[in-house]
Amino acid sequence: MDLSIYFDPVDQRLIYDLSTGKPVIGNTIRIHHQDQFPDLADFDIALIGVPDDRGALNNEGCGNAPNEIRKHLYELYPGAWKSGIADLGNLKQGHSQTDTIFALSEVMAYLIGNKILPVIIGGSQRLTFGMYKAYESLDKIINITVVDPRFDLGSGSNSELNSQNYLSKIILLKPNFLFNFTNIGYQTYFIDQTEIELMGKLLFDSYRLGNINSDFKEVEPLLRNADLVSFDISSIKGSEAPGNGNATPNGLTGEQACQIARYAAMSDKLSSIGFFEMNPLYDRNNTTSFLMAEVIWYVFEGFSHRKMDFPSATSDDFIKYTVPTVDFKDGIVFYKSRRTDRWWMEVVCGDDKQVKYAAHFMVPCSYNDYITACENEIPDRWWQVYQKLM
Questions:
Q1: Does the residue 66 lie in any domain?
Q2: Count of structural domains within the chain
Q3: Are 381 and 221 in contact (CB under 8 A)?
Q4: Are strands 178-186 and 205-208 parallel, antiparallel or unpaired?
Q5: 275, 304, 333 — which closes off a domain?
Q6: CA nearest 161: which of 102, 109, 236?
Q7: Which CATH number is 38's domain given?
Q8: How many CB atoms lie within 10 A of CB 25?
Q9: Exposed site from 114, 182, 252, 329, fewest CB < 10 Å?
Q10: For 194-245, what is each residue's pLDDT tens digit?
Q11: Domain range spanning residue 366?
Q12: For 125, phi and psi rounded to 5 degrees?
């Protein structure tokens, strides 16, 4: 497949402006410029700009984000990374939203199929719909994790796809390849109570900003369970990321955003990640574009620290614990990695379900879930998945 037909090269001025002679990212990765498209056989990560802000409600202008972020990303020094990184340039904007969504899904399906991590810089968060469509074409059931102060369920099934209704569009698709959806950092005063009830009925996971802040390390298992991560810049407090038409006083800190990116990319399961809604028109002193460059730096950093550890009953790399409970006579089985100290829970299901949901019946968790089970309570994470598999 010739991916080059989908892309415009990176603006040559960004390359001319690089600090000459310094081993910064812009001088150490392969960049699509002029007619030199990277040979993807040599790379593990592909950076993709999507300068399309159609459907970005209250945030028109975010289509200019990719190049603004690149200005700062290129000037950062890389870590001790062994993974190959390519910048494929900017996806050509389609005549319609549907054209862009199709092109993005085609490109991503090819990259994911070749075990290359696409890192998307938008553009409108409606592009998350295009990311999901890539998995549909691969016939792969996935978990989506979104960092967002809202649920983006929108209103009206007949309304055009936009940044605040893409989730409902995904849920309504038939056949559906969404196993689980997780929202990290929602703010209750932006959410209709009926939406919170709907999330519960759908057995989706949602975590308030306050809960995240009270014990931030609990975010890691949520991200370790994701195939696709979509990050809305409005989830970061406006004082630290003013470059967004929907910025608000409360939200994540810049440091937390970087940690989320690192947690996500460290997961062996993650196969795509996107950052959306950064708008240079609202930015001050390039604060937001600089922060997003640092966040993407942490994607590269996290990817370089992948451990390729996934529980197996026959592996000596894991310690197996069986915790008896009143509700389940066989108990709940936990696995702890000897190499990383990370935890998983095994959800009981039949052999046919284990084949169909091979990537989902082993649930990432934390030590706190193990303690909960030891106190004869069923961990919420385990119970949610159990109900879906039954």
A1: yes
A2: 2
A3: yes
A4: parallel
A5: 304
A6: 102
A7: 3.40.800.10
A8: 25
A9: 329
A10: 999 999 999 999 999 999 999 999 999 999 999 999 999 999 999 999 999 9
A11: 318-389
A12: -70, -10
